[in-house]
UniProtKB/TrEMBL annotation:
This is E3 ubiquitin-protein ligase. It comes from Solea senegalensis. One of its GO terms (cellular component) is cytoplasm. The lineage of its organism: Eukaryota, Metazoa, Chordata, Craniata, Vertebrata. Its main location: cytoplasm. Keywords: Cytoplasm, Metal-binding, Transferase, Zinc, Zinc-finger.
Amino acid sequence: MSTCLRVATSSRTRGHVNNGWQTEKHPKPGIYFTGSRRSAYLPYNKEGKDVLKLLKKAFDQKLIFTVGTSRTTGKVTWNDIHHKTAIEGGPERYGYPDPDYLSRVREELKAKDIV
């Protein structure tokens, strides 16, 4: 979440988690994990910018990522707050169009007291 770039009609957010050791909050305390860099996309409009502010708040509170078993990597994973990692492809490919995405992600953030 350190940057937001305009990409055509969307904003791209980036998150980075450094390598480290799992804590008591993770599945295997004391075990080393490999960090990750992730990108996600939001519409470049008022609602997208509002959601970006909420996602930054969640990132600052360490709610965006966790260490766990990912379906694809077995490393750092998203933490129950869905992100669009593609501009196209629809919901089945984690992309747009997905007309309900912003309202869904707001609900996921609200469930974590991010409002």
